[in-house]
Amino acid sequence: MAGGQIYKGKDLRISVGGKTLYHSTSCSISVSTTLEAIATKDTEGTVNVPSNYEWSLSAESLTADKAVGGTQNDFYDLLQLQLKGEEVDIEMTTGKEGDVLMKGKAYIESTSISADTGSSSTSSFSFKGNGDLALTRFKKV
């Protein structure tokens, strides 16, 4: 990505085990750092020192069955992985050369499906990072 260009929401997506989420409508990533507060008799205020961090990712999609042998994950695929308690490889990127790539290992923490009268069914997923979150640039292999 050239400097100053903004990432378009439609381009930034997640993939689980190398497969994007079928009919994805949104995704987000969150990183939180634990701050250790230190106050002594020699300080006037509290000094905060960064400690560990944790990260999570969430996504939403329209609920639909993918084609047999498809190259994407659907609600059923992710629910199966969650019920098995499997750690998954997860990443968030545009898939364009030089753009940001955030990746790591995670567990599927929750899945849900909503079906309101008069609208398409949606699925929601949350992932809890397990270990480090790598921040690099996407390179085509």
TrEMBL record:
Database matches in InterPro entries: Phgtail_TP901_1 (IPR011855)
Family annotation (Pfam families): Phage_tail_2
Protein name (database record): Phage tail protein
